[in-house]
Specification:
The chain is an alpha/beta fold and 112 residues long. The chain contains 2 helices and 8 strands, in the order E-H-E-E-E-E-H-E-E-E.
């Protein structure tokens, strides 16, 4: 679950940029569920019991993908890049971007 005040913009980013499908959107609840392959993410407007000034997360969302190079080519010019695609010592080829809220999304494929 990620919190945002930008529900419609976040749905648009995940659907139109990342290729997710919006499985459900409830405007009354300010909540949506999106999925792609085996990944599912829910987004919500924080309720009155949830302290929220701006989107913040101290980690990243890491997704293993089958073809990281192809995904990189399709995303690199459509969003803000954290780091470009490269090979790492831990046998992963990966890159990272930010979503429209500033959440860090990493994508990688095992090398070998």
């Amino acid at each position: 679950m990620i919190y945002t005040r930008e529900i419609k913009e976040t749905i648009d980013f995940y659907v139109n940029i990342l290729g997710f499908t919006c499985g459900e959107y409830n405007e009354d609840w300010n909540w949506a569920s999106m999925y792609k392959d085996e990944a599912e993410i829910m987004i919500a407007f924080p309720n009155e019991h949830t302290p929220f000034e701006k989107p913040i997360f101290t980690g990243s969302f890491y997704m293993n993908v089958d073809n990281v190079d192809s995904l990189w080519e399709s995303l690199k010019d459509k969003c803000k890049v954290c780091y470009e695609i490269e090979n790492f010592d831990w046998n992963m080829r990966e890159f990272a971007i930010y979503d429209n809220n500033g959440y860090l999304l990493q994508f990688g494929t095992e090398i070998g």
